[in-house]
Design a protein that fits this description.
The chain has five helices and seven strands. The chain is of the alpha+beta class. Helix 2 (31-42) crosses helix 4 and helix 3 runs antiparallel to helix 5.
Length: 201
């Protein structure tokens, strides 16, 4: 029995519209996720998808037609994108993409400060969120903190055991104690322009 089936058995009939937390725990990469990531990189999927995501990002900025369901996210102090499943980048590869990007940011000096899985239920819809939250290298000068690309969230969300999206979000501070964050364009270029081959053993 898979995790979704086990959770579904525990859910009592819904009596209100409130979201119920079923499980919240530290998310540690499983053996299968590790193997999937290794095979994903060995098959050069990271290189193919990096090119597609870089192209999608540029097309979004230029209002051009997209090959993949890619949405640019922009608000005050936050930049990112959301990716929905497609035949080009299927949902089955979203967690590998998430883990690979997390490791690439770690190679830049970013610190993984939160990795968790949260399972909630609302109106008979079970939502599973897998999230990595990364912060820049620990500052040496607290009077002028270098926030690099900002704080970065990588998340994959599924509903009723079906992956809905992958999301990357970079948030930065507008404060006199912080240096201006590196532009989001440069984060995209770092992640996708020259994809690295290595992953953690």
């Amino acid at each position: 029995m898979d995790i979704f089936s086990k959770i579904w058995e525990k859910i009592s009939p819904v009596t209100s519209g409130n979201k119920q937390i079923i499980l919240e725990e530290i998310w540690e990469k499983s053996y299968k996720e590790h193997e999937d990531l290794q095979n994903w990189v060995k098959g050069s999927r990271h290189k193919k998808h990096s090119f597609r995501l870089l192209t999608a990002y540029q097309n979004s900025k230029d209002d051009k037609q997209q090959e993949i369901p890619f949405t640019l996210l922009q608000s005050n102090g936050a930049d990112g994108f959301a990716l929905e499943p497609s035949t080009t980048i299927p949902a089955s590869e979203f967690v590998s993409l998430q883990l690979w990007l997390s490791e690439k940011l770690s190679s830049y000096g970013y610190r993984l400060t939160d990795a968790h899985r949260k399972i909630t239920e609302k109106e008979k819809v079970v939502t599973i969120l897998k999230k990595h939250y990364l912060k820049p290298p620990f500052p040496k000068d607290f009077s002028s903190i270098d926030q690099q690309f900002g704080n970065i969230t990588l998340s994959v969300e599924s509903h009723n055991d079906k992956i809905s999206y992958f999301k990357l979000l970079a948030t930065s501070y507008e404060d006199r104690n912080y240096q201006k964050a590196i532009p989001f364009d440069e984060l995209i270029n770092f992640l996708f322009k020259n994809p690295a081959n290595s992953v953690d053993k």
